[in-house]
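Q: Here's a chain of 670 amino acids. Please give me its 3D structure as tokens.
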Amino acid sequence: MANPLLEPSTQPYGLPAFALLLEQHYAEAIRVGLAEHLREIQAITESDEKPDFENTAAAIERSGTLLARASAAFTNMISAHGTDGIRALETELMPELSAHEDAVYLNRALYERFAAIRPEGLDDESARLVSEWLAAFRRAGVALDDADQARLREINAELSRLGTEYGQRVAKGINEAAVLVTDESELAGMPADDRRAAAQAARAAGHEDGWLLTFIQPTGQPHLAVLEDRGVRRRIFEASVARGSSGGPTDVLDLAIGMARLRSEKAALLGFADFAELGVDDQTAPSVSAVLDMLGQLAPPAVRNAAGEAAVMAETAGFELEPWDWAFYSAKVRRDTYSVDEQALRPYLELDRVLADGVFYAAGQLYGLAFRERTDLVGYHDDVRVWEVLGSDGSGLGLFLGDYFTRPTKRGGAWMNSLVEQSRLLGTSPVVVNNLNIPRPAPGEPVLLTLDELRTVFHEFGHALHGLLSDVAYPRFSGTNVSRDFVEYPSQVNEMWIFEPEVVVNYARHHSTGEPLPPEALERLEAARLWGEGFDTTEYLGAALLDLAWHRLRQGSVPDDALAFEAKALTDAGISVPLVPPRYRTGYFQHIFAGGWYAAGYWSYIWSEVLDADTVEWFKENGGLTHANGETFRRELLSRGNSRDLLASFRAFRGRDADVTPLIVRRGLA
């Protein structure tokens, strides 16, 4: 069968022809693409023409289209549908892709051509393209001598190998951690639909009877909030925190230590004190010390608030709490004190209605978008649904793919990927994917969301909007190709529409009766808004500060005992709270160890939240959910990608620099 990745897709918007793709096609297309891209770069560097923007910068942006097409489809498969075959290919191909990146950014001849481009006459986006390429060359090590470059290539290859292995072990570990319950009485408190889903999960995993309580990626597991049996809650909690650190084939502590050592050496080679300093070099944050200052200001009030919450729950429980009790008694306080029963809200949060009448509706009101499901288009798995996205004039903007259910081949968590990036230079329109891990209901049952899942649906669609509404010339700047401490900003802003009155009344209706969510339920949710913020902020800061601790280690100072280091790091940061473990521990911190996109940068979520909280205030001040407001946000931010300075885009939208006060108030840290 001909490999459909070797030629541009003939499907709408360049959607890969997944129905025709075989696993071996990915490897063939990537390797052909690697060789083709090197030939294209060689043609640029060996050109007799004097370097200019068109024959160098524009030429490099036009190059590598086959590689981009194949690697985008493949990396999506790794995270969304990582079969044994895909995992084997990942082990083979990721070091080759890493080596290719070095071949591009350590290419002195290519760097010299970029350095020779004269900026006179270039428009702002083109001038920024040249400066961003030059900065990337320098950060990658183009100025190193041959021996140091050779060592850097070795480090990058080994980091790629270790990161791939880390991700694969964690994926196996999350499946193996699932807790099997054989006595139904131990499921007291669990809703009937969740029990049926757990029974189905047990059968799918090969168990003749019982209920399998599957896990999500973070430390906290949803079942902890409803199960009345403390013994089962303890089993779940202990299985969760032990992932990746209890010995055996899924233990990843050796990999984490190895990566920390290599990253500290890499930073030293490149002239940085540590990997955290290297990591912040291309962010909007000015320095590691600025990040630490902000986190240090937030930690004490967060821990204090968490202690206050613990005291209230202990009084409710009548005994000293353990970590596996927190979610259960927090939910009880919400019910008893604020009359908020999250389980009672779920019948009003049916996935299809949330999508059509909530997420898509808000995007329509703000940006004039319409969504038409395309059942004629095939995704990479039967679970995947495809929508065509139309502008206010009815013209097609791109495709949105939704992949919402958990499965053994999907990694934990939630994320957005781009299969095709928007670019005026290449004439491409965006094709973006949202992935979540919602437990699959029993056949015939509705998909009812928790409040956390509801928030995640809106959040990830904010990333999708960033990709779908991109309007830039060069693929390097498209959509979410922005700095790590800015990328979460638009997605966090999109969460504000969840309980906007006009939006919530549209989607929050009982799945069987159609009755709207009672207004008093929203009032109670607002009254309870700050309950749990102490826990949430402390849990998050624990992970952010643990990440920085691993990446502020200098060459030669990385410890041998990962768990002892973790414990000391949390204590030293003033965030060691036994009842509130970090959201991610070293044994399952995929953000920083599997692929490393957030390595030394997990703090960026809260850095972005400063911009987000201030933006929410702007929307409120200017009338909320209006097309005029949406167009302003789209014009100055969503469409811009990285085509101009990111904080300049924020200032163009907000009219000033960001104010941290709205964040402090939002999180109850005043």
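Q: Can you summarize the key feature?
A: The radius of gyration is 25 Å.
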